[in-house]
Write a structure and sequence with these properties.
The protein is an alpha/beta fold and about 400 residues long. The chain is about 50% helix and about 10% strand. Strands 1-10-9-8-7-6 form a six-stranded parallel beta sheet. The protein is globular, with a radius of gyration of 21 Å.
């Protein structure tokens, strides 16, 4: 029996384990928590009124697994067999070591990180350089660019590579596992930055309104066309989409509303709702404008939003949140009491803002103290979150008894 078959067998066994059944029971099952990327973004199927603690999840950057498992990133995104082997090793290691609420599923997402949409549009991408996927910073569009009315996705050079990679993984695992063909999950702003260039597009926002809208119109049209093509190619219905934006705070809330909100709402209407809205930057001041989108299932409050309460105050309606905690600041380089204090503040902010469904998630962990020490700190952090949650539950129970 090959190593991959042994890993698949172990995954099958653990998927049916009592612990995994417990974890799965915490999440809505109508939409998959594994989507356009390999990380879990689930929605709790209960609220704080149940008196049960909200879920806690953990994630690490690939550099952790380079050190802990010997992952070779120069092969991970270019060799389907190698990808499958290490995807399974990472998932199994996380499940067995981290006592959080991230479940195992039989979903295997093929993902090329930030390069997917830019690669489709012709940007130079790098998959075999020993780091996470990246792309050229050179602009491939300018004022003289004539954007095509449509793209032949089946003949697209980048997608031909993706189709071959996906097909080999699918053949390896058989029908028992759900291999996920890459989704289009970047929002219009993120894709525009990748093909125009960060500096160039940032200047365009202020100096060239016509080109800005031409680029955003083009990438929004291609996003819709790709999603439709993907649905037909796989014979799958179109599901709610995701909007990952690279760095919304490079412009003011006013500019976000002027330039990006209309295109995001157009995609929201096309998808019949946005499942996961994400930005890498601090969107605190932008939350009221972002929350004009008519339907967001899970709203990311990321690691750059140090004080989550200010963002919660900007929400316009009840909203399920994924509250991400920056690992280096609040897990790796702080004391246990400092870590617990930050979690207490998050829970208190959610209570004050009447947030009834949320997920507390570690994010961005890289090697800082040494990989084994870092992983020990992350495992302990899960316990600390549980301790803080228990404090609130016990306090509520005492209050109800009085």
């Amino acid at each position: 029996m090959s190593d991959i078959n042994k890993l698949l067998d172990e995954l099958n066994i653990l998927c049916e384990s009592e612990e995994n059944i417990r974890r799965l029971s915490l999440w809505r099952s109508d939409e998959c928590g594994i989507r356009g990327e390999t990380q879990w973004h689930g929605v709790p199927n209960y609220s704080v009124e149940s008196t049960n603690p909200m879920p806690v999840t953990t994630e690490c950057l690939d550099t952790i697994w380079q050190n802990a498992l010997g992952l070779d990133l120069s092969r991970y995104f270019t060799d389907p067999d190698y990808f499958l082997e290490y995807y399974l090793k990472i998932k199994l290691r996380k499940f067995k070591d981290f006592k959080d609420d991230t479940p195992l599923t039989r979903d295997i997402p093929v993902s090329f990180g930030v390069t997917h949409e830019a690669g489709i549009l012709g940007q130079e991408i790098f998959l075999d350089h020993g780091e996470e996927p990246s792309f050229s910073r050179q602009s491939i569009v300018d004022e003289n660019t004539e954007f095509p009315e449509s793209i032949n996705f089946r003949e697209n050079e980048y997608l031909q590579m993706v189709i071959g990679f996906y097909g080999k993984v699918k053949k390896q695992v058989g029908e028992e596992f759900n291999v996920i063909f890459p989704h289009w999950f970047r929002g219009p702003q993120g894709v525009a930055l990748y093909i125009r260039g960060f500096e160039e597009f940032s200047v365009d926002l202020y100096m060239n309104e016509d080109l800005t809208h031409r680029i955003l119109r083009f990438v929004t049209n291609v996003a819709r066309d790709f999603v439709q093509w993907r649905s037909e190619y796989l014979d799958e219905p179109i599901a709610r989409g995701d909007l990952f934006n690279d760095d919304i705070p490079i412009m003011s809330p006013k500019f976000y509303s002027k330039y990006f909100l209309p295109y995001e709402q157009e995609l929201c209407d096309f998808y019949n709702g946005i499942y996961y809205w994400h930005s890498c930057g601090d969107i605190t001041k932008h939350v009221p404008e972002i929350h004009r989108l008519s339907d967001i299932t899970l709203f990311d409050f990321g690691v750059s939003m140090e004080y989550k309460g200010a963002g919660i105050e900007g929400l316009r309606a009840p909203q399920t949140l994924e509250l991400r905690v920056f690992a280096q600041h609040h897990i790796q380089e702080c004391s246990e009491e400092e870590s617990k204090s930050y979690i207490r503040q998050i829970v208190e902010d959610c209570r004050k803002g009447e947030i009834t469904r949320y997920v507390i998630r570690s994010s961005g962990m890289s090697v800082f103290l040494g990989v084994e020490k870092d992983l020990e700190k992350l495992m302990r952090w899960v316990e600390l979150v549980r301790e803080v949650q228990d404090e609130f539950i016990k306090s509520d129970n005492v209050t109800r008894m009085v």
